[in-house]
Design brief:
By secondary structure, this protein is an alpha+beta fold. Helices cover 43% and strands 18% of the residues.
């Protein structure tokens, strides 16, 4: 029973370290995460301790622990992969997106623009090399974090 407690405790420790640190413990370029390995080791230890405490043979404890740990690792890995795929922190470029000036933009002074992209729900701070009056159509030529550099749009843009 001691071996199951030790493996479970190591799994819990790995899980507690891997959860806040994320991808640090990924193996095989994300094929296996530290989170899923920690959960699997924790499950192995818990099931082994439960089976042994109920007086079943040690062989059954190892088989049940291994099966449950494998199912836990696979399930957790699928969950981690699904959560990573749903992250919306993926960077995207706004260069070429058109919009309209909502607060005059001038050299040395930021203004605001509203962009015509469906994913742009808020106004963005903008800068330009020339003064652009409120209501003027613009096109984004550069991006720096959440700010954009704009120029007046030509009629063919």
């Amino acid at each position: 029973m001691i071996i199951f407690i030790v493996i479970g405790a190591l799994g819990l420790l790995l899980l507690l370290v891997a959860l806040p640190l994320g991808d640090v413990f990924d193996i095989g370029d994300g094929a296996l995460s530290g989170t899923s390995l920690g959960a699997g080791a924790l499950a192995f230890g818990a099931i082994g301790a439960i089976v042994t405490a109920n007086g079943l043979p040690t062989g059954w404890a190892y088989v049940a622990s291994a099966v449950f740990a494998l199912l836990t690792v696979v399930g957790m890995q699928r969950l981690v992969a699904r959560l990573k795929a749903s992250e919306d922190g993926q960077p995207r470029t706004l260069t070429g997106v058109q919009g309209v000036v909502t607060s005059t933009v001038a050299p040395g002074r930021s203004g605001e623009v509203s962009l015509d992209d469906a994913r742009e729900l808020e106004r963005r701070l903008a800068w330009a090399d020339v003064e652009i009056a409120e209501g003027t159509r613009i096109v984004v030529v550069e991006q720096s974090g959440g700010r954009v550099k704009v120029t007046p749009a030509t009629p063919t843009d």
